[in-house]
Design the sequence.
């Protein structure tokens, strides 16, 4: 093989190596670009989902105030006007995820009275169940709604639990409402205990103790 041909082959080999390296570089650049585009798309999807979630959360908070609270108020009026004491006379104990109801001795007699407010009761619990579904399913942000509605929501559910537990035992219904209640009620109790702890620690810190020295003690 002549020297000239060998030189040209060496040049061709060198050029081919450059081309291969260039193609590899282009491939890596394209791969990096694709990865960046995927990350951007994921971020955009998360932002979009968060925006939709917050919008839905705000809508449900508004709905609770404008639609559900009036139903609750009307239900309480019916209880008062019909002199129904079943809910007040029933003891409810909540331990973690367990709810126990101690029915009053007059339970059997109360049934006939409860029938008079069944329609109003169902309007309230069905509306609250529909509200709860959005948060239990995760499509709305329960942590945001918690600060606005947890106290009034849990207070109402506690009042309704005597009849709710009975109906749930028979039909396994209102799972979302009771599920959201257990989450929020537990968090409210935890927050209350944390506040008590902080107040107690502050009180201990600000309480000065004194001792009396023994005579002769330097």
Sequence:
């Amino acid at each position: 093989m002549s020297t000239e041909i060998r030189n040209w082959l060496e040049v061709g080999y060198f050029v081919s190596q450059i081309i291969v390296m260039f193609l590899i570089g282009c491939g890596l650049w394209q791969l990096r670009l694709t990865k960046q585009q995927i990350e951007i798309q994921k971020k955009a999807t998360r932002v979009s989902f968060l925006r939709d979630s917050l919008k839905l959360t705000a809508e449900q908070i508004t709905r609770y105030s404008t639609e559900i609270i009036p139903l609750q108020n009307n239900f309480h009026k019916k209880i008062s006007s019909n002199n129904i004491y079943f809910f007040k006379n029933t003891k409810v104990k909540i331990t973690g995820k367990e709810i126990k109801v101690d029915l009053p001795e007059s339970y059997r007699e109360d049934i006939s009275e409860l029938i008079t407010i069944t329609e109003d009761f169902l309007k309230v619990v069905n509306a609250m169940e529909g509200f709860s579904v959005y948060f239990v399913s995760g499509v709305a942000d329960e942590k945001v709604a918690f600060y606005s509605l947890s106290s009034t929501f849990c207070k109402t559910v506690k009042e309704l639990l005597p009849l709710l537990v009975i109906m749930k035992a028979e039909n396994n219904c209102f799972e979302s409402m009771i599920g959201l209640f257990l989450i929020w009620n537990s968090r409210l109790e935890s927050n209350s205990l944390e506040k008590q702890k902080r107040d107690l620690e502050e009180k201990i810190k600000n309480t000065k103790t004194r001792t009396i020295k023994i005579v002769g003690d330097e």
